[in-house]
Amino acid sequence: MFRRVLVANRGEIAQRIIRACRELGIETVAVYSEADADAIYLRQADETICIGPAASARSYLDVPSIISAAEIADVEAIHPGYGFLAENAHFAAVCQSCKIEFIGPSPETIAAVGNKAQARAIAIAAGVPVVPGSDGTIPDEETALRVAQEIGYPVMVKASSGGGGRGMRIASNEPSLLNGLHSAKAEALAAFGDDTVYLEKFVEHPRHIEVQILGDKEGKIVSLGERDCSIQRRHQKLIEEAPSPALTSEMRARICAAAVKMAEASNYHNAGTVEFLLDQNGDFFFIEVNARIQVEHTVTELVTGIDLIKEQLRIAAGYPLRFTQDEVVVRGHAIECRINAEDPARDFQPSPGLVEAFVPPGGPGVRVDSHCYSGYRIPPNYDSMIGKLLVHRGSREEAIRTMLRALDEFVIEGPKTTIPILRDILDHSDFKTSVHDTGFVERYFGAHPAISPRELG
Ligand code: MV4
Q1: For residue 234, what are the domain limits?
Q2: Is 115 part of any domain?
Q3: pLDDT tens per residue across span 349-374
């Protein structure tokens, strides 16, 4: 096992990785920007190194700064967490050339699945179901019109290098397709320096189902079941749960087998997620691979009892998987709520600043992963997540009850938080009966019902 690991991240995930390392007897080196000098994870690490100013581009995203810190601290491996450099194939390749183990898939796999048109091509070749659409990228208007004619409108234009909803356009007729083609290409070129796009049939009212996989360096891959992430707003997930209430056990077996097939076809090792859309007929379609540990990995940890960060470290160190597919058992039901320092009454504007009081809930079935504390000042420079509240119970109904209880217990004074809207969603009959889809939050909570127009000013 590694003797010493550098954590190339901040906040709750830096803390989460440090915790796993400590339990495995691995020394940790934490890096931080000038804005994070009072972060709690710095007290939990064995060594800390300042890597630059507040701006991410000059600290957490700066490859030379992080590699220099790794060399100075003499680490054997780097854990990138999520966001920042986690899916940067160039960074993974630089680590490799510096003889530092990158805790994630190979640079080749990151590059291959990071290109969504290429990931789609891999899925098609492997026999994994994809949304009807173009075979590869769309070279010209004539091809776009022909493919759309074949699959039928509405269609979606998607940027090969897209993500988080950027470079995506819906078109319901020929003029809007040509328009969407050009605007998606322009947006993608500006954002990613790559204007290639592909076409898919637009799946209406889908659920977002993602399968957690783990693969070792010997090529053995297992699935750890799925997560349902349909409760999101503008491509930011608010609530995740496992297992998905929208799947039968027969559908679950097929979607998990498809995810394993996709991972095998991508020569995947370490932790990854294979994303699918589930349509209203119960058919599922591959859309993307996330080549990193995700924020919501924790719900899978609760239902499987497997510590995903420890498994990532073991896999990167070259150990084979310690369990077989048959040994993975999903028990009970887990729900995660992302608590963000945002103001739901003001269109979810970030609400950073001093946390005057922070008293997390506890008791049976509750887990809080947060780097926040009373007196902490949330810097305005990074994402607004201040913690993840999770529950694990025997059934979905019990999990919802426990989550509502824990949200009520949670004391956060100072910044505005998403706690009130999370409560409203969990209390909504469509969520309770799980008939919701990815459009639920925008449809019902576009304007927060608890806020009167007077309060909005
Ligand atoms: C789609 C889709 C409908 N049809 N593809 C959104 C971001 C990216 N991960 C893929 N996304 C979508 N792709 C087809 N062919 C609808 C979405 C989508 C979505 C997907 C998952 C979760 C939330 C979403 C919200 C809006 C749109």
Answers
A1: 207-456
A2: no
A3: 999 999 999 999 999 999 999 999 99
CA 137/CA 302 separation, integer angstroms: 39
Residue 419's pLDDT is 98
Helix, strand, coil abundance in the chain, percent, nearest 5? 35, 25, 35
Q: How high is the pLDDT of residue 120?
A: 98
Identify the pLDDT of residue 32: 98
**pLDDT at residue number 447:** 52
pLDDT tens per residue, range 417-454:
999 999 999 999 999 999 999 999 999 877 544 433 33
Task: Mark the ranges of the chain whose per-residue pLDDT is less than 70.
Answer: 447-457
Q: Whose CA is nearest to atom 7 of ligand 1?
A: 165
pLDDT at 455: 29
Please state the domain count of the chain: 3
Question: Residue 405 is inside which H or E element, if any?
Answer: helix 396-409
Domain boundary among 201, 229, 249: 201
Residue 186 sits in a domain whose CATH number is: 3.30.1490.20
Q: Which of 33, 115, 26 is nearest to 79 (CA)?
A: 26
Residue 182 structure tokens: 């050009």
Annotation marks residue 292 as catalytic: yes
Q: Is residue 227 part of a domain?
A: yes
Candidates 292, 314, 367, 393; catalytic one: 292
Q: Whose CA is nearest to atom 14 of ligand 1?
A: 202
Q: In the predicted model, what is the mean pLDDT of the chain?
A: 96
Q: List the CATH number of the domain containing 81.
A: 3.40.50.20
Whether the CB of 203 sits within 6 Å of ligand 1: yes
Omega before 243 cis (within 30°)? yes
405 C-alpha to center of ligand 1: Å? 32
282 Cβ inside 6 Å of ligand 1: no
Q: What is the pLDDT of residue 367?
A: 98
Distance CA 26, CA 14 (A): 14
184 CA from centroid of ligand 1 (Å): 15
Pocket test for ligand 1, best of 156, 161, 231, 440 (most atoms within 8 A of CB): 156
